[in-house]
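Late entry, written up from scratch paper. The run itself happened at the end of the previous shift, but nothing got recorded in the book at the time, so transcribing now.
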Amino acid sequence: MTPSLLVVLDVDSTLIEQEVIELLADAAGAREAVADITRRAMEGELDFAASLRERVATLAGLPVSVVDGVADRVVVTAGVPELVARVHALGGSIAAVSGGFHEVLDPLAARLGLDTWRANRLEVAEGRLTGRVDGPIVDAAAKAAALAEWAAETGTPIPRTVAIGDGANDLLMMEAAGLSIAFDAKPRVRAAADLVLPGRDLARVIPLLGSAARG
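Output as recorded:
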């Protein structure tokens, strides 16, 4: 049977309340500078890949154990469990794609019952962060490619795909989807989205899923 729906969410400031890179930067004493770079990248003022490399560089030398501490501080956005349950009840799949990091997303996504997910990886050497990303960076193009890949894998027609995000790095993914939802988003993203949801409750997406499932 053809899956009725594929929902793909951004992670930082969408699936979760925080920006993980900023939590990591706390441990390096660089949160203020990193937060400013993050804001400018999400507004579309900076190239995402270059901005991520700059932010990750501030983490060089931190023990890898800092990641576990950050994972404990992550707060899941209101309505996520309800959204996951509803997508599955409709016979659909729900995924997450992040410019953040697998080290934090992996346990979170498994706990929430997501079907698949993708993120960047932090390079580690001798138990410490090197200040570099390990492998290709998940940028805007990679997010759009992930949505298309997962739609093909699940046999979900593109008109039955939904992309939810808040920053400029989500724009190509949202453009590729059948339905794009700006969630408490930056102005540029709100202007480009099919639907705009203010506030911080992802359960508000649920009433929109019936029409998306029908394509």
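The mean pLDDT is 93.
(Scratch paper discarded after transcription.)
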